[in-house]
Amino acid sequence: MVEGVKADDTVVLAYSGGLDTSIIIPWLKENYGVRVVAFCADLGQGDDLEKIREKALQSGAQDVVIKDLREEFLIHYAFPMLKSEAVYENVYLLGTAIARPLIAKHLVEVAREVGASAVSHGATGKGNDQVRFELGVMAWAPDLKIIAPWREWTITGRNEAMVYAQDHGIAVSATPSSPYSRDQNLWHISHEGGILENPGMRTPPDVYTWTTDPAKAPDTPEWVRIGFESGTPVSVNGTRLSAVELMETVNRLGSKHGIGRITMVENRLVGMKSRGVYETPGGTILYAAHQGLTSLTWDRETMAFAQSVAQRMARLIYDGFWFSALRESLMAFVDKSNEVVTGETDLMLYKGMVTVHAQSSPFSLYSADLATFDGGKYDHRDAEGFIHLFGLPLAVRHHLLHKRGEH
């Protein structure tokens, strides 16, 4: 039990309406005697939010706060991550990880508004999200108590959680035959649990809920043009869209062509490996489009450094350090380097693949006069002196090894 939380205190629960958070409401009331305010963040998960409100109230919540955070999620979290080209372990586009700091920030805001002494979440004691939520809370309100039921109760898994829900008259979508734990927002949907916990088994087709099977996707490729301003996507096929409209558009296109499916075994922050299935159709398109433009507008050294920043940024996001000083400092480089990432990228979508075919930018570093095989301004004779100096260390090393009889 968390010390300092008294009966009749108010606790704000990060509530999704899923299995875990649904049973936490009655559990908090039974074990702490507190009033529970459910906070639901609308990140574009597609749920009927009024039904979620009703479900929370029926489960025993005193009140329900729902916030539409879709624009904020994309503009201040997902799109800045896109600008950094952060990818965890070269595969995962961080759809769940990037949402958690935003939820934590607003969880604290709601707690302040209702005078809560504590907040609560449904993350398990073996997952990454417990760290992400709690680091976010610590960044904004280290005085708030945090109740993590999965670290306290005797429930050992999802099957027992389903029994608890049934005993308390709470309807949940999870069943023993479909026990997957899912997290969806405008950026992606993740799937974990059930048969997916066996890395030797192929991903069953019924796991996917968003994207078309690439084998059944259209037989005709589709072309899409993504426009950027300073690294932020702003248009699709020449039509300027709001952040939410743009994301919904690229998600539809990507889903239609089976783009963005991955199955990976990843290294969790807490020290174990886990297996997850992710669908990120629109995000995959946007990453490819952004990379298409940076190949045109970043010089070699900027690109090399940006790759190291991307790797570090991915770790910070995955580990829950979005609100850290280092992440903010790295973001200064990301923003500066993206000032030239303005223009358009043409991509082809076809049976699970997205490929860059053309890109244009007013900040293009590409010089046809230098790159052409037909004449141009390049003087081939300049290469001789360059190669001599570039390879000079190799020649010096050869003479040293020859002198020592080792070459």
Query: How many structurally independent domains?
Result: 3
Structural class: alpha/beta
Distance between the termini: 70 Å
Name of the CATH architecture of the largest domain: Alpha-Beta Complex
Fourth-tier CATH superfamily name of the largest domain: Argininosuccinate synthetase, chain A, domain 2
What gyration radius follows from the Cα positions, in whole Å? 25 Å
Strand content: 15-25%
Count the DSSP helices: 13
SSE order in H/E notation?
Answer: EHEHEHHEHEHEEEEEHEEHHHEEHHH
GO biological process, one term: argininosuccinate metabolic process
Domain Arginosuccinate synthase-like N-terminal: 11-170
EC number: 6.3.4.5
Protein name: Argininosuccinate synthase
How would you describe the overall organization of this protein?
With 407 residues, the protein is α/β, with parallel strands linked by helices. It has 3 domains: 10-69 and 99-178, HUPs (Rossmann fold), CATH 3.40.50; 184-360, Alpha-Beta Complex (Argininosuccinate synthetase, chain A, domain 2); 372-403, no CATH class. The chain has helices at 19-32, 49-58, 70-84, 100-114, 129-140, 158-167, 243-256, 281-297, 300-318, 325-337, 368-371, 382-390, 392-403; strands spanning 10-14, 35-42, 63-68, 118-120, 145-147, 181-184, 189-192, 222-229, 232-236, 239-240, 261-267, 273-279, 343-350, 353-360. The longest helix is centred in the C-terminal third of the chain and has 19 residues, at 300-318. It starts with 9 loop residues before the first strand and ends with a helix.
